[in-house]
């Protein structure tokens, strides 16, 4: 199905998102919000620090470089194939429709399952804040339902409004944490040392740094979200690569700077202080209480805002993948239609909202709504699925450009190979069947999901081969105005 059949003016195209309504800053906001930089440093710094110790900044720097390899793949594909399906479209073109099906199947659940964890985490964080600040006990799920209602309204009514909310919240929360980071570095004294970028600063050397890299890479999941805006962004073949590069670069620098400020301010090069850090449930709040007590309330509110902006971004990303798969009739065709007036993927939004509430309430009651409960469990499932898609996309890039006249050895061979190599260890680490319960269930859940997908693929191939042939063929056309 070609994009050249685009209807313009007032005519309504039921399978088309509204073209040209977003700018580069809008797309950057979606990717940056999906990474949830403040939430990532608050949750992943303590987890990574347990292995990396004082070498935490080095682990996040290596993770930044590793994800930049995948970023190159997204940029190269987005210049050729801007589409709401992103990796679904990319891998279909690079590896064939079968690989495209599995990509969509994994990418869809990878992002979809992140939303219930964010749904519960928002309620848990806001519940704890209200209880501590106002001595009022309000059930966490009421806050979660309220956030879901706002996310639903924004996503249905306007993608532009959604990304503008993301952008506003991002600016506020990042500025607050940068003030904390800069103050911590200025007051750190002997804590400031280049040794934090040496592997020897980790308790177990290279292996400790490597485990820290796993949590660094988890923090970058979502950088590709802007690629799903390929059909709604002005001049997508230029804008989407700029957005991916800008979001990944800005958040990567933010991560390394905040990890350095935490290491220096907390004094992790001192074994006694490292031990205290490992026992601290929220090191950034502790750092704020010591370095910037006047900023403590904004730090806590920024963390809550960060969860909400990530929730909104992940929701909008997921429904666009569902919309693309519905448009290709891999999922029910009704999911591939847009709202008559607002041009939003309305039916996909409704389905994802129901999924989020049902799974979020279920896992929140089962495991608890906090960071170590539903959020951690669903996030690990999503990470395994998405990292597999990232690896496939690097291989797809090599194949897609193999005989292309514009192929370069660096961009289309060396960098994607490095991307595959960099992601293999994190994939192993987060899918280890020997992990503690319930994380030992993660690889089995992903395998069961793949088995269901295989049954569906074989059914389509036997009964509706035209659906398989049409996978990933919807690509946005470039704007005609210059």
From TrEMBL:
Ranges of residues in domain Amino acid permease/ SLC12A: 37-427
Annotated transmembrane regions: 21-43, 49-71, 105-126, 138-156, 168-189, 209-230, 242-262, 294-314, 349-368, 374-397, 409-429, 441-460
Alphabetical list of Gene3D superfamilies matching this protein: Amino acid/polyamine transporter I
GO biological process, one term: transmembrane transport
Alphabetic keyword roster: Membrane, Transmembrane, Transmembrane helix
GO CC field: membrane
Protein name per UniProt: Unannotated protein
Source species of the chain: freshwater metagenome
Organism lineage string: unclassified sequences, metagenomes, ecological metagenomes
